[in-house]
Design goal:
heterotrimer, A mainly alpha (about 325), B alpha+beta (about 300), C alpha/beta (about 450), B: about 300 residues, Alpha-Beta Plaits, two-stranded antiparallel sheet, 9 strands, C: six-stranded mixed β-sheet, four-stranded antiparallel β-sheet, about 30% helix
Chain lengths: ~325, ~300, ~450
Amino acid sequence: MKPIISLSPHVHGGDSVQKNMYGVCIALVPALVASLYFFGLGSAIVLATSVAACVFFEWAITRFILGREKLTICDGSAILTGLLLGFNLPSNLPIWIIIIGALVAIGIGKLTFGGLGTNPFNPALVGRVFLLISFPVQMTTWPVSGQMGYVDVETGATPLFIMKEAIKNGDASLLNQLPSSLDMLLGQTGGSLGEVSALCLLIGGIYMLCRKIITWHIPVSILCTVFVLAGLFHLIDPSYANPVQVILSGGLMLGACFMATDYVTSPMTGKGQIIYGVAIGVLTVLIRDFGSYPEGMSFAILIMNGFTPLINTYVKPKRFGEVKK
Amino acid sequence: MNVILIAVIVLGSIGLVAALILFLAGKKFAVHEDERIGQVQEVLPGANCGGCGFPGCGGFAGACVKAADKGSLEGLLCPVGGQPVMEKVADILGMKAEAAAPKVAVVRCNGTCESRPRIAEFDGAQSCKVQQMLGSGETACAFGCLGCGDCVAACQFDALHMNPETGLPEVDEEKCTACGACSKACPRGIIEIRLKGLKNRRVVVLCNNKDKGAQTRKACSVGCIACQKCVKVCKFEAITVDANLAYIDAEKCKLCRKCEDGCPQNAIHAFNFPPRKPKVETPATPVENPAPNVEPAKEKEA
Amino acid sequence: MKTFRIGGVHPAENKLSAAQPIKVAALPKQAVFSMFQHIGAPAVPVVKKGDEVKVGTLLGEAGKGLSVPVFSSVSGKVNKVDAVLDSSGTRRMAVVVDVEGDEWEETIDRSDKLVTFKDLGTITAEEVVNRIKAAGIVGMGGATFPTGIKLMPPPGTKAEAIIVNAVECEPYLTADHRLMLEKPEQILVGIQLIKHAVNCPKAYIGIEMNKPDAIKLLTDLLKEKAAQYPGIEVVPLKVKYPQGGEKQLIDAVIGRQVPAPPALPINVGAIVQNVGTVYAIYEAVTKNKPLIERIITVTGKSVKNPSNFLARIGTPMQQLIDEAGGLPEDTGKIIGGGPMMGRALMSLEVPVTKGSSGLLLMTEKESRRGEVSPCIRCAKCVSACPMGLEPYLLASYTRLKDWDGCEKNDVTSCIECGSCAFTCPSNRPLLDNIRVAKQTVMGIIKARHMESITKK
């Protein structure tokens, strides 16, 4: 017998990249079901296209452009990017736009930088923001929930749009058009197909916390910051929506639980993650209330992705036995 | 017209003010540097390869000036520029360049996969330093090459390559600048920076094993067992045996190759000699493994 | 439930041999006594080939500086004094004894009778420490630091708490657990001796919750004989690795954190001793018995009879495996110690040493590391590190050979517990790289220190 020799530790916890990636995918299942329920065929087409396109581009680019022998599509990260990208799109988006989004997400957002683990920005958000800027009309006409069709669907104002109008006009009465908080929690509202049901996203987030895929720092700090800041604005001027509705609207829950917690682009230490989460919360509220776009979550996360290396450099974990100077 | 004029004036004045600030800052924060450093740096190749052991040519120039102030440039060599560049450096610093004999890296281990059986299997980060922490490593020889290629990674000049057949690194003599980076990277100190020798010919003990003979023989079929035969056969007192290991002093060696023939373990190798006539070889070394003559030939090709 | 504050992981416990009483291992035919069984200078052999030795005969006296003596655990004739392969994987100086009979030095009390602290009468603290030193006792949890030195606090420090390390946080190992169940009173007397030696009123026994029987036994015993064993307290701890690390245990039990090196546990008033060491101290002081045997767990998933042996030091591992049912065919890795911090052995000829707490045979399948994939920056290593370091960063600095960066990020604080590599989803060899960095940085620091001395 030739014994194997290696340095300790000789056992491994059994965790793997796949387990984490597919764990996040499982956490997205409730929201997926909700999106199918609310948007029917449209949601199915958009998600299937997005996932298929992301996986295809991941395979094609690593294989033919980067010339790598090892396949990376099995690690689940491309599937996850596809799902998250799809969740960020309206359910009536034409297929060719989705494919462009997937190409940008995987090609530019991820593989340009070397692939999984080295991308500075969240690939799904890179794709989404690219589409938002390039196709503002298609990207901001959201179907009203409860329609099963794909292309010919009735579109309507989203809660975020209503909130923005209220702020613009300084008219708090416009806020009465908002759906009830319960509807917003469950998803009876317009919006990107994965964003509508805050409850399902929250369930997914709690699942990830229980499985220890993510830690509480980022989602909790984002939600708390947004709640406090939006509450403050609401108290000062009632034409700003009340904080509960702010939290339940738009991509906030999806962003807080799934996008901002992306391993690669978020800070490494608990302290750093809280700084990152608070900054995302502040930026989101500022962009929503004072920016020209109704939604600020994607931009806020991308901006803070850019700051992550800086946070990692300056925010160190507390060393054992460290004495404060 | 007016607009253009305003733009020119505004930009022009901003430029002027900025230039003034930069000029003042440059004066105020100027770092006084020994001007000889700049002069030395100019004659250096400027490749910033780090082969000299300093961070780039600037670092080397600084070290040269410092060393010159102490009185000697000994030990400092730009491996890329070689002797001509060092002479220029010495000129600038008002010193005399010492004629450094050309050197080359020699891997003092010939424990190929065949001659040195693997008794364990290493699993972990592919680094010699890591394997070194596990005692003797994959083989029973605690002094031989570990085969993970730390030296190859350390070489800036592409002069070292792993031979997958032997599991040992091979030196490309054309490219080797004797910078010593590989020697430092090897956790077992196997690589020696050795005099190139007359006509590039060298006779070297290709073993680093300091165990007793019996142990060495168990671990490797071509290890030095310190039998002293080479010492006896050498007429020039070039060979010494210290800590169970023979060493040939390159300065004293006259390249007679007697020791090579006398070594019962085939641990002594002659590099870059012309191939011997077959009739000489058969009686002199009853060897099954004709490695000594094959290897130099390979290196020439490379 | 008490535990340490930063990081930690929870590997599968696999305490297969927990229910196996300690068996006395057979005498070996030939015993090998390495002169390198402890941290510090090696012992110097004082016997030569052909000498007759008995159990308890001095084989090697303590070297200069930090060192301890080595005693024979068998009787017979010295076969040779030569370099022999030991658990380090290299050949190092050792005394090899051919065993004949089992004759003991007469000074050793071989009776099983419990000697209480009172029985010893007016033994001075100095005498206790001297006996410990003379018996060649080292930390038996695996660190093998000379115990006598630890019990002499440097001037300016005072021991405020003795902490007995009965955590046994390494998976598979059960030697300390069995010792507590079978020799509880001896351990308590040993603790009293340590308290006496360093003049410290308070002692804690830290035990993880996965050993409820040991916790109950010792707590009951202490309640029952409160007057006889004052100032000793059992502290149940949450199961978390690496609780048995000295610094982690101090943090868990008394809530104090030892600052970065060169600070020592004694700087926060703590002295930590492994429970096996405590037992050895008891035997050395009351029975005049040098450290010649220890309890070692022989275990593994495919081992026929995972067992706990009382083995003479110097016994070849092969013999213990034979007694535990032979070497399983699918063995891929032989580990001296536990799976988290143990050393992979190259041969079964390696002898039991003072620090051998276990022998673990892993199956071929378990032995191989998983395929390495790129770091996904999940930060699990950062939250697992019990020292509050950033393993991912240190490992990448190592790859870049940025030793300065490693030093600035406190690589020297690493306790090499392996939590980072254990938890890494990408199977990266984090600790392999960090070890290289630690070694290199230590070398740089030492060189710098030497330079500053010569300059002065």
